[in-house]
């Protein structure tokens, strides 16, 4: 039995009266306002928050309720996230373990993320395709399927290929308010079609009549903006959009910056579309710049890469810009190269450029194949 709490009361005949009060009165705590309980839970560490779901039905229903999710999930911009966010490194020579850089603490984690602890299917052959809103998407070619999983919640869904055999390109994982969509192009015996899987209806849609406006060797995933996927074609550069609802392709009339040598698209949580790329002549970048698409559909220059940093980056990729890709991560625009184990990033709030510290767990023998992802754990992201 717990020690009672002694409460001193007014004196009677010069002798204090002592009463015994329980440390926790169930009648009082059971009547705690729901809003106050939500506020208390929002301050708990992630591990404790997750364990609470097995405490009682009331806690489980509250933690998984839509109001609580909208207020305290990592995707909410109205409140600070209680979860850490990471830059995740994937390399084919270490396919089952992913080193993690904690962007909140500014350091590499001592332990890597191990898939052997999370993947529900022990497939010897798989490939990490994309991460979005805390969801991982893998390709499992031997089982002719994709695997979408939330490693934090230990939930997953196996999605069979829409046809057999199924070769695809331009794979893009798109987060939606009610789930996610998978987009890809697949070339059949006679034509190329766009395929879209919608998690809200658990089915594929095929859009035929694809106009060959992207080159056959185009490998960049699309960037979702205003309900469409945006692609930047190889030279001659132009913007191409695909409407995820109607399946219609369109070449945008937005004028791109002059003397563009390469460009990569990305967007932030607020829905702003950015492009980072090189400018120069004869396919050689003399400078690198960052542009933002404004409301008038014009590209406005936001920042120019400092000369010394630009020289290092173009020397890293040896002017082979096919190796360059970029992504958004928690206020950072990250620019990467498949052949280089470092990340160049732009801190939007401070308008400064930096190099992410090299991962101490990467052997020197890893010369290429570096693939980086933004991983923001989302306990409530549904598969």
UniProtKB/TrEMBL annotation:
Protein name as catalogued: F-box domain-containing protein
Domain of life, per lineage: Eukaryota
Cross-referenced Gene3D superfamilies: 1.20.1280.50, Kelch-type beta propeller
Span of domain F-box: 26-72
Annotated Pfam families: F-box, FBA_1
